[in-house]
Sequence to fold (1309 residues):
Amino acid sequence: MILSSLLHQKEGRLTHELLLEPGGFGLGRVPLRVRPEATTAMVCGYCSTGCSLNVHLKNGEAVNLTPKTESPVNLGMACPKGWEALSVLDAADRATTPLLRHADGQLRPTSWETALDEFTMRFKAIQKQHGKHSVAFLGTGQLPNEELAFLGALSKFGMGLRHGDGNTRQCMATAVVAYKQAFGFDAPPYTYQDFEESDVIVLVGSNICIAHPIMWERVMRNPHAPEIVVVDPRTTETAMQATQHLAIAPKSDQTLLYGIANLLIQNGWIDHDYITRHTRDFHDFSDFVRQFPVERVVAESGIPAEDLHRLVDTIHQGKRVSFWWTMGVNQSHQGVRTAQAIINLALMTGNMGRPGTGANSITGQCNAMGSRLYGNTTSLLGGHDFTNADHRQKIADALNISAAQIPDQNSWAYHEIIEGIQRDQIKGLWVVCTNPAHSWINQGQCREILERLDFLVVQDMYHSTDTARMADLVLPAAGWGEKEGTFISSERRINVIKKVRRAPGEALSDFNIFRLIAQRWGCGRMFREWTSPEAVFQILKRCSAGQPCDIAGIDDYRMIDEADGIQWPLVSGPAAPERRLFEDGRYFHADGRARFLFEVPRPLTEPATHDYPFLLLTGRGTAAQWHTQTRTQNSAVLRKLYPQQVFVEVNPDDAANLGISDHETVRILSRRGAIRARAVVTNAIRRGQVFIPMHYVETNLLTDAVFDPYSGQPSYKSCAVRIARINKCCPGC
Amino acid sequence: MTTLIQQLLEEQQDLTAVDRFSQLHAAGDLPAQQKYYSRLLPASPPAAGQQYAFNVDLDKCSGCKACVTACHNLNGLDENEAWRDVGLLIGGTPELPIMQHVTTACHHCVDPACACACPVDAYEKNPVTGIVKHLDDQCFGCQYCTLACPYDVPKYNADKGIVRKCDMCSDRLADGEAPACVQACPHEAIAIQVVDVARSVAEVPGRPLVPSSPSSDFTVPTTTYSGGPPLSADLTAADLSHLSPQHAHWPLIIMLILTQLSVGMFAVGLLVGLTPSDDAPQMPAMATAAALVQGSLPAGGSGFTNPLSTAVSLSPAAVHSAVALLLGLLALGSSTCHLGRPQYAFRAIIGLKHSWLSREIVVFGAFSGAAVTYTGLTWLDIAPPWLVTASGVATVITGLAGVACSVMIYVFTRRQFWNLSSTSARFLLTCPVLGVAGSWLTLTTFAAIAQHEDTRALATTCGPWFATTLIIATLLKAFSEFRIFRHLQEPEPTQLKRSALLMTTLLRPVTMLRFTSGLAGGILLPIMAVLAPATAPVQVMLFSLLFVSCFAGESAERFLFFTAVSPDRMPGGLQS
Fold:
């Protein structure tokens, strides 16, 4: 027996390592090693979908996770980032102590006492020398509401800063302005159930298969065999799944949308009743779009006339048409008007407020909406206006502070802060949970500008981010899973995050870092009520009272947890699991009417020329990568799922003309910089265009710092570049 | 301030989620996810002639790769381990570009190459479910299955010293639960189905699973890919142009080269008639060994007369066979370095019926026995000459059989670069190349050190024969290997074109070394050695150089054998 098992051993230690056992808690079989003693659900901390993840706990600490089956959002599914959300917390490059740059230029560990002293003394000295407003902050859409509010209130009411903005400027600012102007409030009207109820789904500049895989799950579960229309210059994963793909010329979407509106009006395929009862300025719009006959649209967008007619017919035939957009629209030199061109289509066809309809902006980051409502950057806490005295008084009362402490002027937008540094008006910068040295447009220039600062503080989970490496002071932050708070997802769903892991070393939650700074700065009394995230949640309820985003009906975190998240608004009573806005056709403008907003399309800011004959598109690479990859690069499994080095998609004809073969390393040059990238020769990209994913640090060396005039959002997705083969005999050229 | 810092640092380490929320989530024991995946599982288990198989609906695979991370997390795998991969096919036309992600795991083949290759029977194909399961505790980490499986499924885990692979979550399936990947696909692209084995076999001829993937007729994979672009569409794997050298497997390089050198030397010894009865300088073995180490011998060479030494004679045959034996044993030692768990090497005997690796191990085991016997006899001078010769012949025959097994190990994998003719040319011709080079050096050195005229004469007499053999073997080998470069002309990146491209680009320095060093040692130096008589020390240097050149050439050849192979695979993702 012993001999036979020595010769042929079917079980033993190694087999045991992979043993699966029933996990309880509705989980099915799980690895024996990490069988949970308890589970608790929390919202994912990457994108704005807001998937609920069931965290498996052992000794109170997270050991594994699975997507939550009962969640009305993700129905038991998650994308790779969600599945790997815990593993990135263990990374070797986590910041575990404050780091201070010494005279020799090295960042070295220091104590929290010293770090807080430096933070306070250096920023106060700058304020003394250059004025209160010479210190600014850059925040994020990745922190929970309570921390964003603390950052905004501490900096603007406590420290006397005026200028602060978030990285949501890079993703959502356009949608915010578009909604505010059209609906009277930044109010995405939909609920994810709409993906399942539409019979026509129009996706403009949105590769949701990759950017929001779980929203695509909801599309795939649509039982109505919907017509899926994708408007995107590239053949993306989503375009592959479309029933109609309109591969338009880059940034010709606004013209296309006006052309569609014109055809709908010409054909009489509009909802006069809805327009009359619930909107304004339609006649002006109707006159305006006459400038967009089919011939013009065909010429400018490159779309065949029959495709245009087919799409218009599809919209007309649809009983429940929903329009969705993401960064292809938002990150544009004319994004606000393009987004409003989409909104106009929904309004004029009456596709609003009913199941399966809507003009729907898909948000980027997990708490982009929270940063808009509670970040205290562009708008005063709770979606209020800094320049409105009544609003200032209301918030002052809600916070128990004096209204005089609230700035009566708006903050500079992100790009104005960067320009302010360039003009030496901003000398101190506090960067919280974002990575401008990688993500900001025209990166070479951005880094030069950041070098001008007298004092740069970076507060982050990782000491290795491109921006942290430039910092004078690094404050080590706890991450998602190591702290509490609430996020607001794309469909306005507020959900909780929980503390299921111990932060490494001396890392502290951003919330606690703000508490320390308030204390050390000398404004601790102002924040004496701000003792815990949940206490601040109660303050935020007061700040939103009477607003479209009123959440007075949410008692506490436990109520949110029990309901699997609650969509705003909730003034009172129990919350239905899925709710949409504008069911009564009343918009948030004083007259209750939505606006038709439009403008003559603007020319491309940097069209292709003889020297720079290609247009560079940028965008998300894979579902396994997140933004500047400070987190996702720390998962070994995620790293297997995408190319490690930057690559560029090139059309086969262009490649042949240039003599470039697949997988060859080529040089890409713009007027701002040059990079090397592997060529991927594919029909997915049209002639005259190239595509580079945004996750690689090189990409933004090429992009051109131009912005939407209304939202200040950078236009990442079109600048002119040249491709060159690398001369083997002289590798430098 | 310090107190607050201390208080907050302590608070940060205090986990609250369990106390505050967990009781809310104490749901039942039944898997909640069942309501989604139940329709992705077959209604009944396989009947006779059927088995479980994956079905992938390509129309539903959007390339999110959640299946890979779910496999990793739900199976508790190591840091970068996952048993599912997602590749990409690209192509189509300018009007209709195609980008098709392809999720792939073990295909639980009807005729699994991994199981056939495994020398220790660490694979079991379940007779009812058809699932090919790997027995982790039986595996000794030879990694042969990683070469044999055309789909790159078994993955070596260096930390554990074993291979691990997908078992279709058989424990879950047995309980009516879906495998991790099936549970986790947001789009329900992966399902488990019951397939008729006969149908899987019938569908095989000439049809790969998806474009670019290996031909199915080798192992008869059971996974079915439905939907998606037609197989005829002009699609290629996104990683097709990505040339990356494969693992070199250094212990195997050394093992192969040295076994072939050893067998070659034994054969040369027999052919030139080296026997202990040669008029050898009789001297105590130990003293000679010491002298060999010191590089000098006392004048006369045979001046010792020690009663103990009478039975131990140090003939050229003895030295020659000892060198061959030593190298042979070194080879076998090296091969165990390739095992993740060498302590279980003995298990290799149980795969004899089907595994060429098992056969190789057993046959080389017999070879080493024969070689030890033969060498012992040449040293001890106690056996009749016919017995010595017979043991020598047995050594060479077992050795050649071992080399043949080595050849078959690689031929079995059906990689074109490792086909029968080219692999046998490589392995079998290394025997004469290194056998002659090694013998020539050994005899010359022995003659010089021992100042043994007969040996010197023998070496000189055999010189032209040695040189001719070496040159012919070298030329045949070089010709056979050089033929790969014909494939550079092919329009499509076939397996052999990819190998040729690797050899001329990333592996170019090794290719240069292989041919320059090999041709110098195998052609130039032997001609010099025969045509230009030299003094003994110069000869020793010359033959050392000849041997080193040949050895370097052969090592480079074998390095290229492993690293330049580029089999067809399931499509991989974009690489950069």
User: Anything to note?
Assistant: The longest strand of chain B covers residues 50-57. The longest helix of chain B spans residues 420-450. Chain B touches chain A through 95 residues (CB under 8 Å).
